[in-house]
Amino acid sequence: QVQLVESGGGLVQTGGSLRLSCAPSGRTFRRYGVGWFRQAPGKEREFVRCISWSDDRIYYAGSVKGRFTISRDNVENTVYLQMNSLKPEDTAVYYCAATRNLIATPSSQYAYWGQGTQVTVSS
Known about the structure:
Strands 2, 4, 5, 6, 9, 10 and 11 form a 7-stranded mixed β-sheet that branches. The mean pLDDT is 92. The chain is mainly beta. The chain starts with a strand and ends with a strand. The chain has strands at residues 3-7, 10-13, 18-25, 33-39, 46-51, 58-60, 68-73, 78-83, 92-99, 112-113, 117-122. A hairpin with a 6-residue loop joins strand 4 and strand 5 (46-51). It is 0% helix and 50% strand.
């Protein structure tokens, strides 16, 4: 069982930046692919970005291309989502998730989820 803890959400103005962090409680991220998803009110959960556990292969959603960056620090045992040039449509609860697969985009392939952190972008 992997318990994930996200942090770093908050309220920011349009064009601002936030960095989300995700760390497992009591375990290493070493052999897990890690993804970020988000869910806005009244919408389905959508994939944002993910990173593999071995070769730092990255997939991303088109809506965040050039604005969001995912990275992992295996020493700190943490995965980060750097979000720049934020827009009101980025407002959502952001979830970190872990998969035993090398890397994956469908949420169904992620077995472990954090509790989510709220990101609100004001216009």
